[in-house]
Amino acid sequence: MSRNILFLTLDYPDPKLRQWRFIDEQKKETTSFFSNIDAQ
Q: Which of 2, 4, 10, 39 is at a distance of 20 to 30 A from 19, taking alpha carbons?
């Protein structure tokens, strides 16, 4: 059972920034930040 895993690790209230953690099939881990440009 090998699959990629993408899940939300942190959700910052201000600024609107979310940290995503991605683990691929080789168990390599990547942390990414996505900011919401359309935050109101």
A: 2
